[in-house]
Fold each of these.
Amino acid sequence: MSFTGLIVAAGSGLRAGPGGPKTLRSVAGRPVLRWSAEALLAAGARELVVAVSDETREAAKMALSGLPRWRTVLGGATRALSVQAGLAAIDAPDTEPVLIHDAARPFLETRHMEALLASLQAADGAVPALPVADTLKRAKGGAVQATVSRDGLFRAQTPQAFRLGAIRRAYGAWSGPDEPTDDAAVVERAGGRIALTAGDPRLMKLTYPEDFAMAEQLAGAARIVRVGQGIDAHRFGPGDRVWLCGVEIPHDQGLVGHSDADAGLHALTDALLGAVGDGDIGQHFPPSDPQWRGAASDRFLRHAADRITAGGGRILAVDVTLVCERPRIGPHRDEMRARIAQILELPLARVSVKATTTEGMGFTGRGEGLLAQAVATVETPL
Ligand code: MG
């Protein structure tokens, strides 16, 4: 179902401690605001209107750069005024569903939004809410005055779903000195019926510094480590050098191949592609295509790394084993590690190059060809 997303990111978030407005601080390498925006877009938002303040506008634009279908509007001095500024900026019919979301709740998922939009069909608003689990105390001066029944009490979260015309009218009718603490309260006071959908602890609002530590763990739990392996072999032939792991080695033979025949980088490229289930080197660079004749294999490896990055992944470590009697690999090993680390933009400690022989046995033992094997570990979204 089509809907518009309205993200409130105008607050300073001072309770979250130093490090700037909380919605612009990073969780797992992405600003909190970007997590929210990506989730709304992934769920099918037609457009995102992001209410910002003068102080947060530039940083918010940076946080959202590269994403489609968003624009910022200047919010107001309070959350309610920021929401109203955002609602005024939406160009859609009165019946358009609007999901209003606090930017500081980064872990919303498509299923949350689908449930809200479904509930909105038969209500004036829909809100994700969790039953209160802790015992509630009323206290004063550090001493309990009473235990309050938690029966029927819920904690309201965001996003909250409304029809554009209805939420605009409700805000227009709000009067009184008090500030609404969420948007559903505004519709409630206007006489609207708010439906509850299942809340989620993951929809927690990042408020205090310790919330960010918990958010890092939650973000980490949404990622998995995958392993890929690659194998390649090339035949020895006439020549005076070989390319192995991106390093040129003088030798009394060459390796025969369509490109530079760097079996080390080819095996590693296949390992990276394998870790993310993205085909193999021959699919991405067909040997039948003349443009790869004699090509330097570092571009194959870089391409595989770029595919992983584009999918939101990150290379953790790579390990290459070269199998041959000659040339001797040991003297070139450090340079090979350094070259792979450079191509993949990895710390040297995450790159391993090893060599072995097959003690005269088989095609590598007879010196007919060289074999390379590689293993790559990659972290990707779940
Ligand atoms: Mg090859």
Amino acid sequence: MQGLMQEWPLLAYKVIEHAALNHPNREVISRSVEGGIHRTNYLDVRNRALKVAQGLEKDGCKLGDRIATLAWNTWRHLESWYGIMGIGAIYHTLNPRLFPEQIAWIMNDAEDKMLFVDLTFIPIVEAIADKVPSLEKIIVYCEPENLPESKLNLISYEAWISELDGDFKWHDFDENTAAGMCYTSGTTGDPKGVLYSHRSNILHGLAANQVDMLGLSSRDRLLPVVPMFHANAWSTAFSAPMTGATLIFPGAQMDGASIYEMLTKERATVTAAVPTVWLMLLDHLEKDDGKLPDLERVVIGGAACPRSMIEAFQNKYGVKVCHAWGMTEMSPLGAICTFKPEIDAMDKDAQMDISVKQGHAPFTVEMKITDDENNDLPWDGKTFGRLKVRGPAVAKSYFKGRGKEDFDANGFFDTGDVSTMDEHGYMQITDRSKDVIKSGGEWISTIDLENLAVGHPDVMEAAVIGIPHPKWDERPLLVIVPKEGKSPKPEEILSFMEGKIAKWWMPNGVEFVDEIPHTATGKIQKIDLRKQFSDYRFNK
Ligand code: AMP
């Protein structure tokens, strides 16, 4: 027997329609790339998204076409996503931090038909446009008077949109239709395309909005520093309009001072970004004696959040940290570290031990750890294994069938992360499986060592890599970027770490550098770091 409930396909336009009807005046605030602060609201975003949809259709775009965006977080980027999805086309976010050749490779793989681009990135497009034969039109997010001279035929977004009246009906189609596309960073081999569907984006947005997850409400003022080009904007482009939360977009300025200005002037209550962004903010706060009176919580994910960062936010600035873990392939949310009641009952130290974990899964994510033979491992907080996941917003394949080996017969996706699960269901990442250090047959977590080292007051950033060792296979080398004006000695760092980790985990050496290489999504680029230190050997 079938249930007698209505068919209501989970299509993205329902989200922006909901926001426009129920939260029409709620603001969407952006630092405009052209300069100044721009203010609009959900009603206007919906109305302009309809014009984008109408314009795309007029330009010959249709169901399944890939429409690329190379842009910062702004209102225009948001309305483009909804306009693109509204005709069943696919927003394809490009990461401007990749090399131009990589961007061209990705655009060709995706066969992008049109491109929406911010003024900042026009030099990239000029360098690659003739290498992407599928590209028919380039629309620049700007007023006509700000359109730059170019050898390319560039069109001003505002001029393009002003010719449309928005008298347009959203298209209906199957909820499993592709809605968005984002390539993985490709740290091993070519990048792989992840294809979100309308259904997965909506289920993921709902899951992210659970109180124990992002827990957004219409009273929240959300500043997503995480770019829309990184892992589907961590669901914020869906979960904020679903709840009617105010959106505050940082535009092109992501340095500590600019983020501080947006957080305080626009009174953000919740914000989200990778740890490197928060390092810059904390540094700025320290130098300028800043305060964060309105900010209630900060979501930190994309890379492990050090204990010292959690302590700084919570103890110095009174901001709750929600450590989070996810992947492009998971839409991306996999876990958030909010406290269950059994954690509330623990003492402060034990609670801090929980806070550094990546968290527990939302409904929609099934998680398990296994050994190399795919046998389930216990949730005892000690045993590490391969972390595998399954759910309605988890990829079942990559674009063009790549990476088949990452998906098993039962539909689980192997995340490539090594982790533990504890008896309360909290997951803790030990390492990427390719970064973990194997010393004398045992594993050393580079993440634990890095997190401990950045707790030293003179350390800005730390990375640990394995160096070949004649007796132990590999031993850890600690690479450090000191804080401005500081020059700590290796012995000081090591003695700071002593007693806080097992003796045999202690790094065999400490090296100081001006900069640690990062990937396009702000993670430490261990491949490059290992190359940089490929001839390095310990003398004992
Ligand atoms: P991406 O798809 O670029 O978001 O990268 C996903 C990968 O980032 C994961 O598989 C993890 O290795 C890493 N990652 C994300 N969040 C965290 C976290 N909170 N702690 C440690 N690693 C993380």
